[in-house]
Amino acid sequence: MLVPEIALTPQMVERFKGRFGDQVAVMHSRLSGGERYDEWRKIREGKANVVVGARSAVFAPFSDLGLIIMDEEHETSYKQEESPKYHARDVAIRRAQQHGAVVILGSATPSLESYHAARSQANPDFSPMLLEMKKRALGNRLPEVHVVDMREELKEGNRSMFSRDLHQALDARLERKEQTVLLLNRRGYSTFVMCRSCGYVAGCPECDISLTYHQKSNNLRCHYCGYAEPAPEVCPECGSEHIRFFGTGTQRVEEELAKLFPGIRVIRMDVDTTTEKGSHEKLLKQFRDQKADVLLGTQMVAKGLDFPNVTLVGVITADSALNLPDFRAAEKTFQLLTQVAGRAGRHQLPGEVVIQSYTPEHYSIVHASGHDYDSFVREELRHRRSLHYPPYCRLILVTLTHEQLPLLVRMAENMVTTLQGKAKQRGWYGSLDRLTSDAFEVLGPVASPIPRIKNRYRFQCMIKWRGNIDAVALTREAAEQLEDSAQGQKLLISIDVDPQMLM
C-alpha cells in the first residue's frame, strides 16, 4: 500500500493494523537504519503480508506479490528526483508484470497520463481499466465551494490575507467548535525581503533565488541549498531602515490568525515543523483529538487526511502555482484544490470550501470549484495536444551544471547539436508537428528557471519524442560522448525521463 507522503503513513498504518494486526510492516525514509532493516527482514521472512509506506515501499522484498495499491497516484512525490531517478508507478507496474499481480491506481484526480492511457488503450505496455466511483464512500454530499476574487476584496478596502467570506466562515466554525484546514503552499514567514529605499532583495550567495524569512529563528534561509543568515535590521546595500518582508508564508498566516481570532488554537504543519522523528504523528493526533481549531499547512495537509470534525477548508492563494514555468501547472492546481476540498465534510457534518484567488476565471479553478474533473480533462487535453505535451508525447529533461557559465553554455550547445545529429542519422529528427508516427525534437538549450544552485550554473534542454524509438538510449549515448570530451572539467549531466518538474 503506497501513500504519497510520509505524513499519511501513520493514519494508513493504524487502519491496516486494525484489520491485519502484526502482519503489517512499514517502510519509509524517516525510519532509522535499524528500523528499516527490521521491517525489511520481517517482510523477507514472510512475517508480514502487508506493507504500508511511501515511495520506497514499492521495493518491498515480497516473493509472492499479489496486489499493489497506489493511493493518490497523481502525486508528483512518487517520482524520486535524486539519482537513481524513478517513478513508483512505473516500478509498481513492472513488478506487477513480473509477479502476475494487480495494480490499483487510486485518485479522485488521476494524472492525465494514467487517465488517457485507460481511455485510449493505445499503449500495449500500460492499458489500465478505468473504474469510476460516482459518489463518496460514505454517500455524503461533496462540500459547497465558494471562490472569492481577491482583486475585488482589495477594491473594496480589504487588505487582509483573509477575505470577508473566509473570515466569517472561520468565525462560525470557532463558534460551533468545528475544525478548519487552511492551505498555503509556501512555508516560512515571507517569501522575500526587500529594501524599499534602494530596491535591494536579499538573495542566496550560492543560488540565484531570493531568501525566505523565518520568524521563529529570525533568519533568512535558502530552500534550495540550506544557506542561512541573520535577518538584517538595515539594508546591507544602502543602510536604510526601510526593510520590508513581502509575500505570505505559513508562519505569517499563523501570526495573522492569532491577531484576528484571540485564543485560536493553530497547528502548523510544514517542512519546518515536521523535521523531528514522529512529528507527523504527533501533530495529526493533536488535531484528531481536537486540541486545535485550525490545521494550517502546505500541500501535505491536502492529501488523504480524514478528520470527522473538519467542516471548513480555506485556500489562501489558489493561483500560486499557475505562473510557474511548468506545462503541468494547471493540472497540479486543479488536483491540489480538488484534493484539499475533499478534506471538508467527510462524515456526518456538511462541508464548505472557500478558495481565494486573483485569477478566479482560470479554467483549473473554475472546474475545481465545480468538482468537475471531466470538463477539466477535456480542456487540458486540448491544450496538451496542440502544444505536443504528454500524454501525446514523452519528455526527457537534460540538465547540465558547471561552475563556469561560458564553458557551460558551450557544453549545452554541444549537447543539443550531438542529440540532433544522432537523431538525424537514425531518421528520427523532426518537429512533432509532422504526421509521422516516429518523431524526435530537441528544445533549447536555455538557462534553467533557477539558473544557479550551490554555486553551479544550470542549463537545460528538453527532448520531446513519440513512437517506437529508443530516445533514452540515444540521450545517454550523447551525454556519455560529451562527458568523455569534457573529462576533468567537472561537468555534471542529469537525464530525467518523464520529468514531473521542469524547475
From TrEMBL:
Pfam families: DEAD, Helicase_C, PriA_C, Zn_ribbon_PriA. Its EC number is 5.6.2.4. Residues 1-128 form the Helicase ATP-binding domain. Residues 230-413 form the Helicase C-terminal domain. It catalyses: Couples ATP hydrolysis with the unwinding of duplex DNA by translocating in the 3'-5' direction; ATP + H2O = ADP + phosphate + H(+). Zn(2+) 2 binds at residues 204, 207, 222, 225. One of its GO terms (molecular function) is ATP hydrolysis activity. The keyword Cell membrane does not apply. GO terms for cellular component: primosome complex. Zn(2+) 1 binds at residues 195, 198, 235, 238. Binds 2 zinc ions per subunit. Keywords: ATP-binding, DNA replication, DNA-binding, Helicase, Hydrolase, Isomerase, Metal-binding, Nucleotide-binding, Primosome, Zinc. It is an enzyme of class 5 (isomerase). GO terms for biological process: DNA recombination; DNA replication initiation; DNA replication, synthesis of primer; double-strand break repair. Its cofactor is Zn(2+). InterPro entries: DEAD/DEAH_box_helicase_dom, Helicase_ATP-bd, Helicase_C-like, P-loop_NTPase, PriA, PriA_C, PriA_CRR. Component of the replication restart primosome. Belongs to the helicase family. PriA subfamily. Initiates the restart of stalled replication forks, which reloads the replicative helicase on sites other than the origin of replication. Recognizes and binds to abandoned replication forks and remodels them to uncover a helicase loading site. Promotes assembly of the primosome at these replication forks. This is Replication restart protein PriA. It comes from Paenibacillus pini JCM 16418. The gene is priA.
